[in-house]
Write a structure and sequence with these properties.
52% of the residues lie in helices and 18% in strands. By secondary structure, the chain is of the alpha+beta class. Helix 17 links the parallel strand 16 and strand 17.
Length: 619
């Protein structure tokens, strides 16, 4: 209900209630006062009649009573005046009661009780009936038998109050009319007083409604010089301040928002607050990951944010290697147990198969179904339709990573709500991730052999604590193969170092194909290579060692002088079966390698205690 309507209703209802209460009170007061006056006057008249009758009786002129009473009825408003004798008087005086009108109930009550009684009779006329007892006094007993205080009769008066009542009602109606006129004048006056307030309030409502949408251009008209005028001026000053500051920010935020989303325009002011809040949260996230030690901690923190802050239960995080045209899966969440990826495995070997990576733009199946042919979520989880959004993360102008969100149709709206915020988080995280990826690359470069791209001994020394902790936790073993290319120095001396490098590179490729992805290959030094078989048994260790020897023996190394045949010698030891020290087991594998070379080369030998000799080599 509007303020103007409320004020009009309040004044009208208030005036009406006041008039009703005032009228009821006034009517009661006038009626009570009128009845009190009438009662007093009637008692005076009745008492005068009684004294007159007593006087006439004393003078011995009782016959004069009747004409006197008849003359009284000619008084305006007095309908009837008579005396009703008591039964004792009738019997003593031998009065003919037929000359008197029948007694009324009120008169019988007065004769019985000796108490003055009155009543109002409503009918065609409004009649006030009063009965006053005629009490015997000392002088009365001179003529009447009985005792002092006996009721000798009743003086009965009936007065017509119709005219007085009509006059009273007319007076009351006149006063009520004046009251209503006063109320009308009051309404008009208050209405005139309220109009500036109502109009100012309406203008403020419209101005604030625009302000909620980011439009602060509305201004209020100053209608009065009182407090409402001051409010108008203060509101205009606030709107001007907001227009020059928040208005500009809102427009810039709106431009930024529309640049990221095709949704309908929202409340810009509220969106400004939301975006600023999200930017602060994203900045805090950036500060947190800057202090993380490595990329693994960064990705784990991002995973917790996705799950805990954004409530996402299905997602994937990929790293993109543009130089290798590969996408490496970093994290996967929400996949069924028998599934590997939410997408086709093709994207891991050819990153152009990923639409987000290829176009460097956000990819969403909400607006266009089947937008990316590599998405296989509906084959992975067939019980309900799955949708996806892929957000690329830009590093130095190219796509360095992709965040993939997978969700159901019921979750579309909640995903839309967090989409922009997630993009902000990724933008803030991008330079940190790029920096840590570069550090990782540099660190890996220092821990890899540049020729074969295998890990070097420095890496093994740094990784040893992690490897030993894993083996101990899993109660596992590590097969150690020390491999050496037989007579490698002759290749360098006779065919040149370039051919020697080719042999080393091709041999490293044979090693890579012969072992699992979980195993480790290390160029230990020169032509020596160390193979760590994680979780291998003794039988499996020797099987792989023999397979390596055989594959090298049968392989033709390409050289400028034609195919070249080479062999290798392999020494094997098992940690922790052969020694509770890992480096001790490496030493034992080296002892077995020395034994293989000493006993004819092109062999794979398992270390046994008999191989330990005083003249054994140091490494």
């Amino acid at each position: 209900m509007r303020l103007g309507t409320k004020s009009a209703v309040l004044i009208s209802v208030g005036t009406l209630l006041f008039a009703i209460l005032f009228g009821v009170g006034l009517f009661y007061t006038i009626t009570s006062s009128h009845q009190t006056t009438l009662r007093l006057q009637s008692k005076m008249a009745a008492e005068l009649m009684r004294l007159t009758i007593t006087h006439e009786m004393r003078e011995g002129s009782p016959e004069h009573i009747k004409p006197y009473l008849e003359e009284l009825t000619s008084v305006p408003g007095l309908l009837d005046a008579h005396v009703v004798p008591a039964k004792s008087v009738v019997e003593q005086m031998g009065i003919d009661t037929s000359r008197y009108p029948p007694t009324q109930p009120l008169e019988d009550m007065v004769l019985e009780s000796g108490i003055a009684t009155e009543e109002l009779i409503d009918g065609e006329q409004h009649i006030f009936h009063l009965g006053i007892p005629y009490i015997a006094g000392t002088s009365c007993l001179q003529c009447h038998s009985g005792r002092e205080g006996d009721v000798l009769g009743v003086v009965s008066l009936e007065i017509d109050m119709s005219q007085q009542r009509s006059t009273m009602i007319q007076s009351l109606m006149g006063m009520l009319l004046l009251l209503f006129l006063f109320g009308a004048v009051l309404i008009i006056a208050l209405r005139a007083l309220m109009v500036p307030i109502i109009r100012t309030a309406g203008a403020m409502r419209k101005a604030f409604a625009k302000a909620e949408e980011g439009d602060f251009s509305a201004r209020l008209e100053k209608r009065t010089d009182d407090e409402m005028g001051d409010i108008s001026e203060q509101t205009n000053r606030i709107m001007e301040l907001m227009d020059s500051n928040l208005g500009t920010i809102s427009k810039e935020i709106e431009t930024l928002y529309n640049a990221h989303s095709g949704e309908e325009r929202r409340n810009i002011l509220q969106h400004t607050v939301s975006v600023v809040h999200n930017m602060v949260q994203a900045a805090h996230f950036k500060q947190a990951i800057e202090n993380d030690r490595n990329l693994n901690e960064v990705y784990e923190r991002l995973r917790r944010e996705l799950v805990n802050r954004f409530g996402i239960s299905r997602f994937s995080i990929y790293e993109v290697s543009n130089s290798k045209n590969r996408m490496q899966l970093i994290l996967n969440e929400g996949l069924p147990e028998d599934a590997e990826l939410w997408c086709s495995r093709e994207i891991t070997i050819d990153c152009d198969a990923c639409r987000a990576r290829r176009t460097a733009e956000l990819v969403s199946s909400i607006e266009e179904d089947n937008i990316c042919s590599s998405f296989s979520g509906n084959m992975v989880q067939q019980d309900e339709k799955m949708l996806h959004i892929c957000i690329p993360s830009m590093l130095s102008g190219t796509v360095g990573g992709v965040l993939q969100l997978v969700f159901t149709e019921k979750e579309v709206e909640s995903v839309k709500e967090i989409q922009l915020t997630l993009s902000s988080f990724l933008e803030e995280a991008a330079p940190v991730i790029e920096s840590k990826r570069l550090m990782r690359t540099l660190k890996e470069a220092s821990m890899r052999d540049p020729m074969t791209n295998l890990y070097n001994r420095r890496f093994l020394e740094g990784y040893m604590d992690t490897l030993m902790a894993t083996v101990e936790r899993q109660k596992s073993t590590v097969g150690i193969l020390m491999c050496d290319i037989d007579l490698f120095k002759q290749v360098n001396d006779t065919l040149g170092h370039e051919t020697g490098d080719t042999v080393l590179i091709k041999f490293s490729e044979i090693l890579k194909k012969a072992v699992r992805g979980s195993d480790m290959l290390i160029r230990y030094g020169g032509e020596e290579f160390l193979v760590l078989l994680i979780g291998a048994t003794e039988e499996k260790m020797m099987e792989i060692a023999e397979r390596l020897r055989t594959e090298v023996e049968t392989y033709n190394f390409p050289t400028s002088s034609g195919p070249l045949k080479k062999t290798i010698s392999v020494g094997a030891a098992l940690y922790p079966d052969d020694s509770d020290s890992f480096w001790g087991c490496v030493k034992l594998a080296d002892v077995a390698l020395y034994e293989a070379k000493e006993t004819g080369r092109n062999k794979a030998l398992r270390y046994v205690k008999d191989m330990w000799k005083e003249e054994k080599p140091d490494g």
